[in-house]
């Protein structure tokens, strides 16, 4: 996900040419720089917090007249819908591989 965001940034801001920065060096190109590590930790934390908070966030019922606040129903609906996508996107693969 992080690489997608950085690729999007390069494609739109720099015309798809990530090496066209002053000095020919891209700040986040080397994955061991402090800014890159901070970006990784912050984004991984954000995705994990989102995963946890979705178990406690109310859901608008389809007719838009009421909000479901029952934790058991929220958990069941989340597990049946977006949980797998959120879980896979929140795995910190940079630390695993």
Secondary-structure-derived class:
mainly alpha
Distance between the termini: 15 Å
Strand element count: 2
> Biggest sheet: strands side by side, in what order?
1-2
Instruction: Count every helix, treating DSSP H or I runs of 4 or more residues as helices.
Output: 5
Instruction: Give the SSE order as H and E letters.
Output: HHEEHHH
Overall mean confidence score, pLDDT: 78
Uncertain segments are none
What is the share of helical residues?
A: 55-70%
Strand content: under 5%
> How does the overall form come out from the CA principal axes?
elongated
Integer tally of domains: 2
Radius of gyration: 19 Å
Instruction: Summarize the main sheet.
Output: 2 strands, antiparallel
How are the elements arranged and paired?
Elements: H1 2-13, H2 34-53, E1 59-60, E2 67-68, H3 71-80, H4 83-90, H5 93-96
Antiparallel strand pairs: 1-2
Describe this structure in words.
This protein is mainly α and 97 residues long. The chain folds into two domains: 1-29, no CATH class; 31-97, no CATH class. Helices cover 56% and strands 4% of the residues. The protein has five helices and two strands, in the order H-H-E-E-H-H-H. The protein has helices spanning 2-13, 34-53, 71-80, 83-90, 93-96; strands spanning 59-60, 67-68. The chain has a two-stranded antiparallel sheet with strand order 1-2. Helix 2 (34-53) runs antiparallel to helix 4. The protein is elongated, with a radius of gyration of 19 Å.
Provide tags for this entry:
single chain, 97 residues, mainly alpha, two-stranded antiparallel sheet
């Amino acid at each position: 996900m992080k690489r997608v965001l950085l690729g999007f940034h390069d494609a739109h801001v720099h015309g798809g040419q990530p090496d066209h920065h002053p000095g020919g060096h891209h700040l986040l190109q080397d994955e061991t720089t402090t800014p890159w590590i901070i970006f990784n930790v912050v984004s991984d934390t954000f995705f994990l917090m989102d995963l946890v908070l979705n178990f406690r966030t109310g859901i608008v019922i389809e007719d838009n007249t009421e909000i479901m606040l029952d934790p058991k129903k929220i958990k069941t609906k989340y597990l049946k819908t977006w949980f797998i996508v959120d879980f896979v996107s929140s795995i910190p693969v940079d630390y695993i591989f």
